[in-house]
Amino acid sequence: MVSVPAVFIGVLLGPIAAKFIDSSRWGSAADGQTSAITLGVARVVIGVQLVIAGFQLPAKYNLTRWKEMALCLLPIMTIMWLCTTLCLLATVPKITLLAALVIGSCVTCTDPILSQAIAKGPFADKFVARDLREIISSEAGANDGFGFPFLMLAVYLIRHADIPKTGSAAASSVVSSVVNNLPSPGAAISHRGLELIARAEEGVGRLGGGVGVALKNWFVETWLYIVLMSVVIGAIVGYASGLALKFALRKKVG
Q: Where are the domains of the chain?
């Protein structure tokens, strides 16, 4: 698996060790720019990996295997989300249900990059059946979009519903209680993470309105705007990319 060595090398080259890669010094070296740079790089990496996964799958794979994909993306992902939430509630002291739902939604989706460790390479070619490798790659590429509504449902309930102990102050208090029990190196890193979270939450507060407003905004903004528009844009870009690829192959470009 290349992911573990890649993380280890990144730590060695990063600001903690060699300082060869230090995004805080890039460009204008503005305070707090590392979070935006990390987000941008992560989007590019995941976007490239998703495009690669789409091109590597057989033609019209998701149309021919829609039953298997629907089973993986709907009931199985929902069960994973709820089971992860229950594990968090059982193991993390004083964590709220909505906070556990947010964290659970973030770790439910299969990472499209990490999944390549068992879907691609000599080991996968030898020990993993092709059908299994293909459905792992397809599910990893699609489940980020299907996991997004889980995340936004919990976020909208936190923002709008009149549920006690769901604000950022309560969440920070819960995380702080966990961090204080960590060894000193881990506690120092975790405290730095809390500072970044607090900085990101400046100016963000409860909006009120109750569960009804939360569900309405969740449906309109998440499903109709973000999800549906993403599907339309993805279909257009994907179709155009396919035409461009066929043209390049026909003309033997590159």
A: 64-167+206-251, 171-198
